[in-house]
């Protein structure tokens, strides 16, 4: 039995003008600011507070796995509890794991992060296709039959990435352009509005430098774009419409440090403020 495609679920969030993705990045200084210990219990507490603040306001939360891996198995237990809270609250989870490997090993990553019933089951995960797009095939069944999504790194927000992602391939396209095209064709054909496979495009970038045209009308199905780089990395969420143009239709704007900073007190108000700001920025 097929589950509701990820793209269809995402389309409902976008229709409700929920474009914000709140990062769960328990950096040590942020935990200190929250009055929490720099341990798994502290990271869990922060994550669960973020889920509570995001429910009904943001489209998703995005836990960055490195901040939990720091604590070994206890960190993974913390993540499992955060994921369970998110499921109960109806908040989608994008596991920011940036996985990629040869196909047979990648399939095990997909099993860990996307298989229904897995302790670390998320709605979508971030992946890298630098071992070739076909190396991601092990996730195809979860995308097609189990309502799961992928976000493929295409043009990332960090300046060092240009040397790889702006490189021009033998077919004349940049690496980033090819990632965008391959992501679109890897989506679920049942998705009529929003594809189930999207890309990561940094909000800090001039996307035309990567050969990505934001003036083109939205693809159909629309390509989900997970966009980090707002807030702490310098892009303004109020400029999301200008930065992403035609790609703004299915935009998930991520902020992590800028929303988490300031402590648990006021978190709900900060999340609502960012959610309203991006909804306004994308209203044409
Ligand atoms: O895949 C990501 O989420 C990601 C891709 C990218 O190009 N740039 C980027 O910053 N990220 C992640 O997005 C989050 C951004 O955090 P802030 O800069 O604190 O908002 C971090 O968890 C990064 O690991």
TrEMBL record:
Orotidine 5'-phosphate decarboxylase domain span: 19-272
Q: What class of enzyme is it?
A: lyase
Q: Which reaction does it catalyse?
A: orotidine 5'-phosphate + H(+) = UMP + CO2
Which Gene3D superfamilies does the record cross-reference, listed alphabetically? Aldolase class I
Q: What is its EC number?
A: 4.1.1.23
Alphabetically sorted, this entry's keywords are: Decarboxylase, Lyase, Pyrimidine biosynthesis
CDD domains noted in UniProt? OMP_decarboxylase_like
Instruction: Describe the family membership recorded for this protein in Swiss-Prot or TrEMBL.
Output: Belongs to the OMP decarboxylase family. Type 2 subfamily.
- Upper lineage ranks? Bacteria, Bacillati, Actinomycetota, Actinomycetes, Micrococcales
> Pathway involvement?
Pyrimidine metabolism; UMP biosynthesis via de novo pathway; UMP from orotate: step 2/2
The molecule here is called Orotidine-5'-phosphate decarboxylase
State the species of origin: Leucobacter chromiireducens subsp. solipictus
Instruction: List, in alphabetical order, the Gene Ontology terms for molecular function in this entry.
Output: orotidine-5'-phosphate decarboxylase activity
Q: Tell me the InterPro entries matching this sequence.
A: Aldolase_TIM (IPR013785), OMPdecase_type-2 (IPR011995), OMPdeCOase_dom (IPR001754), RibuloseP-bd_barrel (IPR011060)
Give me the gene this protein comes from.
pyrF
């Amino acid at each position: 039995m097929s589950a509701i495609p990820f793209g269809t679920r995402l389309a409902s969030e976008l229709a409700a003008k929920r474009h914000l993705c709140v990062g769960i990045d328990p950096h040590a200084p942020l935990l200190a600011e929250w009055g929490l210990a720099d341990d798994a219990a502290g990271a869990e507490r922060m994550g669960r507070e973020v889920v509570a603040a995001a429910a009904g306001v943001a489209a998703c939360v995005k836990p960055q796995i490195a901040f939990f891996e720091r604590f070994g198995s206890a960190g993974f237990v913390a993540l499992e509890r955060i994921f369970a809270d998110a499921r109960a609250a109806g908040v989608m989870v994008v596991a920011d794991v940036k996985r990629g490997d040869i196909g047979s090993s990648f399939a095990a990553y997909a099993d860990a992060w996307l298989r229904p019933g897995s302790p670390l089951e998320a709605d979508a995960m971030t992946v890298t296709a630098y071992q070739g797009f076909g190396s991601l095939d092990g996730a195809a069944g979860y995308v097609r039959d189990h309502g799961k999504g992928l976000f493929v790194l295409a043009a990332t927000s960090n300046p060092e990435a240009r040397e790889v992602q702006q490189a021009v391939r033998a077919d004349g396209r940049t690496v980033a352009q090819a990632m965008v095209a391959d992501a679109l064709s890897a989506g679920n054909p049942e998705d009529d509005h929003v594809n189930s496979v999207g890309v990561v495009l940094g909000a800090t970038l001039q996307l035309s430098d990567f050969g990505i045209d934001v003036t083109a009308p939205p693809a159909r199905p629309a390509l989900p774009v997970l966009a980090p780089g707002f807030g702490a990395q310098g892009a303004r969420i109020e400029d999301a419409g200008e930065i992403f143009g035609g790609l703004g239709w299915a935009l998930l704007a991520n902020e992590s440090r800028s929303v988490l900073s300031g402590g648990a007190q006021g978190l709900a108000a900060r999340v609502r403020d960012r959610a309203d700001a991006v909804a306004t920025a994308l209203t044409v």
